[in-house]
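From: lab user (bench 3)
To: helpdesk
Subject: output format question, protein + zinc ion

Hello, I'm new to running complex predictions and I'm not sure whether the block I got back is the full result or only part of it. Here's what I submitted:
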Amino acid sequence: MISYDNHLQRRLSALKGQYGDTAAYEELMAAGDPVVYEVYEMLRPEAAGELRSGLSVVHPGRVGEEFYMTKGHFHSIIDTAEVYYGVQGRGVLLMEDSGGEWAAEEVEPSRAVYVPPGWAHRSINIGNSEDLVTFFVYRADAGHDYGTIERQGFRKIVLREGQGYRVADNPHHAQH
Ligand code: PAN
Ligand code: ZN
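Helpdesk reply: Thanks, we reran it on our side. This is the complete output you should expect:
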């Protein structure tokens, strides 16, 4: 574990509207709105030259055939890049820019994934029983724009397939 100043938990309710299987979503909500992921941050002043870093822990689970995942966001300073590094478990970093490009990069222990400037990103735990733990670092003054993804979702979704996963078009995305 790293030393951290801030710990936050996000429950399923924070992902309202992001999952296609609304019956599965409502069932989990009725059963107690589970904690889907947690973030441990090393806070630094939101100033030029500073870096914010920490651990993201996405628990294992699914809503219907879609895995537990983070809300996902663009950065408010949109041309901010970010590095993720796999610590534990198996996941996919789903990314897209605002011009129609997308990518789904696998993340596993000792593997780094680069999120380029201008790309929204979401971490998805594709494992069956293990937490997906990643270390992240980005400029401390970047800020977060959650609203764009809350409104339109990502272009792609990641679904369970057998013991693995597949990437499919998001039927609820505004442009599909
Ligand atoms: C990460 C994320 C963290 C949680 O620190 O904030 O993984 O995901 P959401 O912020 O989408 O809920 C990061 O990408 N910061 O920029
Ligand atoms: Zn980010």
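A quick orientation on your result: Residues 10 and 37 are 5 Å apart (CA to CA). Let us know if anything else is unclear.
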